[in-house]
Each structure stands twice: as C-alpha cells, then as structure tokens.
Amino acid sequence: MKTNIVVMSVAAISLALTATACSGGESDAGSAAAGGAGDSGSVRTLTGLAAQNRDVDYDPLTSPADARKKADLIVTGTLTKVEDGIRLAGDPTQAKDDYVTFVLNVHKVLDGKKGGVTGGKVYVSVFTGGAAPAAKLAALNPQAKVVAVLDDITNWQPSPDETVVRPANIPAGARLYAPYTDGLWLQGRSDTRMFGVGVEAADLPAGWRHAKTVDQFSAALDGS
C-alpha cells in the first residue's frame, strides 16, 4: 500500500476531521441511487460534496510513467454506483459514513492485472470524512465517465488494533482499491472538463500534458 492514496487510519483521523490524502479543489455542494432525480449531467456537485471534509497535502503523480510505476491497477470506465464504504473495526472515532464505495464498470484496463477486475467492476474506497452518505452522493451521479489510478488495499491493516470491514455490497472475492489523490477523475455528459475529489486538473504536473478531460488523461496513460 502506497502513501498518497485516500485511506486513513485511526491515528491520522484523530489528527483532523479532514483526514485524507488530498488537497485543494473547489467546494461544490449539492442536494441528495445512481443517476438519480437530481442528475444535471454534471459530476461537479458530487465531487465537490465528497471533498468538503478533505484538505491534506499529498505527493502528486508526476507523469503517466510515474502513475504506471506506482499503481496496482489503472482503468477507464463509468461510475455506476455510489454505495456504503468500508469501516475500520477498532476505531472509536470513525463515523459510519467516513468512506463510500465508488463502483466502476470497467471499459478498459490501461495497466495492471485484469484479474483485479471482478465481474467487469472494480470497487474503490473513497474517504469523504462523513461529508455525505453514499445515498446522497449516488443521487448526484450522472453515470460519470471515469479514469482511475488505483492501489490495492485488499490486505490493508491500518494499525495493529484496526481491521478493515467490508460492506455487504462488495463481493467477498473482489479486490478492494483506493485511488491516488490526483489519480481519480470523473466527467459527466454535460461537463467540458474532468473533476477530481478535492483536486483540480490545473494542478497536475507538466508530465500530464495539460490534460483537462478524462479522455486526455486516459490517452496520456495509454501512450506513456
């Protein structure tokens, strides 16, 4: 497990309610099942709301080659669902909704083992710090296009006193992933640019060739 992904142990969470591995970004909150009634075609409100309780420094992915070197799996696909997330057993400070699960329907594996995909899907643990329950975020999901640079946290143990408990919605045999802070980008059908959870495309290092959309970011990875 790497150091700049969106997972936090009890020790880190106790330092700040905003504990995640990300920084910056716009705060676009919105109103509260995937592709719900409030769907405007944009993913901006979803990412802004998910990022409200996140503001921690991180080490950026400097280039597509750097992403490939660090990640266990890189995929493109669609955010089909936002569901309940993992919880940390033994962590008395963790709120029920600290994590949500982004369920991605995978279109293409850009790097890593295809065996990491289960039934055409990957399950991504996203730390929101309790900004909103999964159902509220799900209602804001326009079935967004996604590119994700992921770390395998299936066997992650945050500390000797903590264990990761999967929610019932994640199949027992599925790998569990967490995104690199600047490696999870989403774009709705009405969006002209991609949005991260607490990060901005404008902050990507020069090695990303000024990628502004999911397709451009994916193309940079595919051609690295």
Q: Ranges with pLDDT <50 over ≥5 residues?
A: 8-38
Fraction of helical residues: 10-25%
What's the order of the H and E elements?
HHHEEEEHEEEH
Strand content: 25-35%
Structural class assignment: alpha+beta
Topology, number of strands: 7
Oligomer: single chain
Give the count of helical stretches.
Answer: 5
Q: How is this structure best described in words?
A:
Helices cover 15% and strands 26% of the residues. The chain has 5 helices and 7 strands; from the N terminus they run αααββββαβββα. The protein has helices spanning 10-15, 44-50, 64-70, 134-138, 214-222, and strands at 73-84, 87-89, 99-112, 121-127, 145-152, 163-165, 176-187. A hairpin with an 8-residue loop joins strand 3 (99-112) and strand 4. The relative contact order is 0.26. Mean pLDDT is 85; it is low at 8-38.
